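REQUEST ID: PR-0412
SUBMITTED BY: lab tech R.K.
PRIORITY: routine
TASK: structure prediction, single protein chain
INPUT:
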Amino acid sequence: MNILHLEYSGGTGGIEKLCKDIGLHPGVDRQYFVFVHEGGEFYDEMQRAELSVRCLNLKNRDVIKLYSIIKQIVYNEQIDAIVVHHPAPIVWLAILMYMCLPHRARILIYFHNVYDEVTRHSKVRRQVLNILLKKSDGIIAISEFVKNTVLLNSSVDSRKIHVIYNGIECPDVDCTSEGSLHKPVRILYVGRLIEQKGVQILLRAVSILKDSTPCELRIVGDGPYRSELEDLSKELKIENSVKFCGSRNDVPEQLKWTDIFVHPTIGEEGFGLTVAEALSHGKICIACRKGGIPEIINDGENGFLVESEKPMAIADKIEFVCNKLTIEQRQKIQQNATLRARNFEIENLVHKLHTLVTSVEGKNG
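STATUS: complete
OUTPUT:
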């Protein structure tokens, strides 16, 4: 099968990384990628890897031009399915125009986030998206939680929505000698620095623990909330225990460094890719019970879920892991973490995408 992936930009982000990973693990299909608006870090990496990738440098007003380019690519490359990854208006409108053709490739809409986040609470976006969902040949949701948000906000038949979990690279990890912790205990956060990610809560939790269970915290990622977080660490007098690392391309090395991975999100996330990556490295994960996170972590088995996003709840769980569990118990959780992560290997995603593309019926089906 020939699959065309439509994305808005090729910069840093979870969707862009997923497109790159799909391209590097194509399975039996031929994968084509089009970045509509601009390139970026992942676009450059995909070019260097000699993947079939194009950047169109179109503006939001260039809907007709994008529509024409899509038609041409489908014809020239004999595309069987188009996967729409990004909720940019230019992409949605061009695809709606393309759907009016009598003969076309199948259209799959990929939900990388909950419905409200995709539509940004806009009535116009909701109306356009719901038309797109109704006319599409299939819908992909990155978790059961995301699927349910689509069902709650649209009239789509549940049988049309297919859950395909995000994919990660699973390294070979030996946890047989793990279970011990560094002193001070090493804690890692990876993700965007925005308020709903809850890093401010993690900082306050570290402050609570500074006397009883000293911690060394690394924060990997960047965003508009960074300066406020840096100020908060100084206000809490823990700046010597916290390192803001910025955006990094060596996350696996950062995971090797850490003892505990904390994901303190206060928003309803669709999946939690960094959580799955941490599990794949055999790390003990602590995360808030939000969105699709409980579909990744089985509480007490391969990690821990916190019922409240309050600093004390996270501090108590970190202290529990450090001071209440034996080395053998921590080692067992780490072993279970690597086993759980195997469910999210990128090869599984590519295989399920192929199965879905071959099973849905488009206008030519």
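NOTES: The chain is about 40% helix and 20% strand.
REVIEWED BY: pending
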